[in-house]
Each structure stands twice: as C-alpha cells, then as structure tokens.
Amino acid sequence: MIRIFVRVLIVIIVSTVLITIAFGGGYVLSRQFFAPAPLPDGGAPADWKPYMPVYWEAWNFVQQDFYKTPIDDNQLVNSSIDGMVNALGDPNTRFVDAKTSAITSSDLSGSFEGIGATVEMKEGRLTVVSPIKGTPADKAGILPGDVILQVDDTVIQNMDVMQAIRLIRGPRGTEVKLQIQRAKQPTFTLTLKRETIRVPFVESRMIEGTSIAYLRLNDFGSTAPDEMRVAFQELFAQKPTGLIFDLRRNPGGYLNVSVEVASQFLKQGQIVLIEKFKDGRKQEFKAGRGGLATDIPMVLLVDKGSASASEIVAGALKDHKRATIIGAVTFGKGSVQNVHTLSDKSELRVTIARFFSPLDKEIHHIGITPDIEVTISDDDLAAKRDPQLDKAVEVLTGKK
After folding, report:
1. Contacts of 233 (CB under 8 A, 6+ apart)
2. Active-site hit among 15, 308, 335, 357
3. DSSP label at residue 364
4. Which of 319, 346, 357, 391 is catalytic?
5. How confident is the model at residue 17, as a pLDDT?
6. Which CATH number, 3.40.250.10, 3.90.226.10, 3.40.50.2300, 3.30.380.10, labels domain 202-397?
7. pLDDT value, residue 178
8. Beta strands per DSSP E along the chain
C-alpha cells in the first residue's frame, strides 16, 4: 500500500514538471495520458524524504488506533492527494477520483449509460432538471422538478451531486429503483432499466413566425463541431436572415473545440483567445478556415452559467464585434487546466495558464458583460417565458 501511494505522489510531481512539454493540443481540460515511471526502490525523491516520516507516522497511528474497521486505504490515499492539491488554494486545480472522472469523460464524449435525466442538487435535494427525450427517464414519465429521494437502498439528501449521479448510472441492461416525490403528491417508486444514452450537443430550429435561425450548444464536447456543421447546413437551406447562438448554461469543455466553434463565426486568422503562462509566455489561438456563419447577422445569448469555453467564444465574438451579446454576465472562469490521468484512472487537473480575450481583456473572476443585459425572473421561469430570447429576436428583426 505504501509503495502504491508513493508512486501516485511521484506521478503528481512528475506531472507538474512535464506540464509545459505535455500541453500541446490544448483543451480547457487538456488530456495527456502517460504511465507513471517505474520506481526501482519505491521511494520518494531525496528532497521529499525529510517530509515523509511525519506523514507515515500519522498513517500508522490511524491504522493502529482508529476504532472502526476495516479502513478503506484507497479512500485515505485519495483524500491525502485531495488535501495536498487543496492546499494550493486554487479551486480549479483538483484531484478527481476514478469514478467521477469516468462520468465527466463520458459526458464530454456525448454518450453514457444510465436513465437519461439531467439533475442538480437544490437545497440538499436531488432535483430533476429535465429528462432527455426518448430515454428510460422520459418513457417512465419523470418530469422536471421531480425530487429523487432514494436510489435503490440509498437515501439521497445533502449528498454530493456527482456521488448521487454515480448511484443512478450503471451498465446498460441493469435496473435501478428510484423513490420520487412530485410536488405535494405521495411519494412513488419507479424501476428503470439503464440504457446507453446519446446526448446531442447541438439543438437547432427556425424561430416560429420569423426567418431567424436558432442554434444552442449544450457543451463543448468532442463531437460538437461536427454537429454544428450539420445543423448549419440544415438551417441555412431555409435561408435565414439572422442567427441566435445560445450558450446559456453551457459550462465549457475542450479548448480546441472552443476554437473550432468560434471559427464558424470569425474570419480565418482572427484571434480567438490569448493564453498566458506563469513564465510570461503567450500563445495566440486563431480562427481556422471554412466558417459557415461568418457573415449572417447574429446574437449570442449568455448567462451566469456560461463558463470557460463559452467565455472564450463570447469574448472573441464581442472583441471582433461579430455578434450582439444579450443576457447576463458570464461565470468568469478564465483558467486552463492540464489533465493528467493517473495509474488508477483518477485525474489530476492542474491550472497551467490564464486565457484572455483577443483584445487582452481579463476574463477570470470577471466574466463577459453582455452588450444588452436582460434578466430572467422566477416568474418568467414559472410561466416558461424567455425574455432574453425575445430580445434577441427583437434585435435581429428590428421589431419592438
């Protein structure tokens, strides 16, 4: 156990040394896969040895004295790494255990195995945001606002949302039992069979009664650029006079995808973002060729849930005056993480740089301010009104 733990710690140190070399393709969550180098003696580097006795003294006392058995050594290791990373004081530099890592990776690939419902933890209660059309959750009649009280034999309350998701997801063909509360109705139980869920990153349509095209991007996942190109071809066949691009509640994703997405709207060679490293180096990312929506009048919708890669695109479109931006100030996550996959498939995400808009404007902790700020009230949500979308249509049609 000691040898395994030391190896994991050594991988972390080696990872930080290799960041500059490993970072090449560029993701907001960059992925670099490498196996930890074998350690012939299983020991720590010489400059670490003064610090190790205290750690192992504490470890041994826990193993010797703690009254509950058995002790989960794997949890102790993960928590030790987590504590080390948290000591850096950067919320975006973090350790992600193997199970959580598998969930985030599958989400960005556009496919996972589960029941097909997006959820959030609201006041300690696991609440359904929406079922995905055609999935087991949708077919079983699960509705937005339903609260999942229990998954199989586990009560869900004040639980980390990723932990709850891990309980609900599982291999296709297996069953999961959910106890659900709907408004003031009596609780009821549903048994669902998990399936492979494929979630499109792109939603598109023509706005009813107008010649305005609408395209929403839910995540900057791996297949998003291809999905966008297909959607644009279908929309532009209908000869729209304007385009609404919706990045609201889009938490981000891969940096290279954000550059590809921005390239759909910008001219080749225009700067998409500037990346700055701690040693003073700068790297510019520029739009590629072949954009399908470089000339059409355009509105970009953003809100406080638009983060990271969404802010890269928003900052580029704003600085190049390519779109009118409508909505609320974005989240303000302007840092880049290099992701190292460790030997047990857990991940170490290390902040390596900050990104800035093409005009060198700070994004981190500031966000992108819309050209036209429009809020959505609780009454709007209850009545299913969307004043931000309405304002976008108004801007593009010239109607008030």
Report:
1. 292
2. 308
3. T
4. 319
5. 28
6. 3.90.226.10
7. 95
8. 29-33, 94-96, 111-114, 117-122, 125-131, 147-151, 154-155, 175-181, 188-193, 195-198, 202-206, 212-217, 242-246, 271-277, 282-286, 298-302, 324-327, 335-341, 347-356, 372-373
Task: Clarify whether 308 is annotated catalytic.
Answer: yes
Structure tokens at 373: 């700020």
CA 120, CA 165: separation in Å to the nearest integer? 10
pTM: 0.76
The mean pLDDT values, 10 residues at a time, for the chain of 400 residues are 37 30 32 35 64 86 91 90 91 85 74 83 84 87 90 90 88 94 92 89 94 95 93 97 95 92 98 95 96 97 92 98 97 89 88 95 95 92 90 89
- The per-residue pLDDT for 43 is 54
CATH number assigned to the domain covering 111-198: 2.30.42.10
Could you say which of 146, 310, 333, 346 is catalytic? Answer: 333
For every residue of 288-356, DSSP letters joined together read -S--SSSSS-EEEEE-TT--THHHHHHHHHHHTT-SEEEES------EEEEEEE-TTS-EEEEEEEEEE
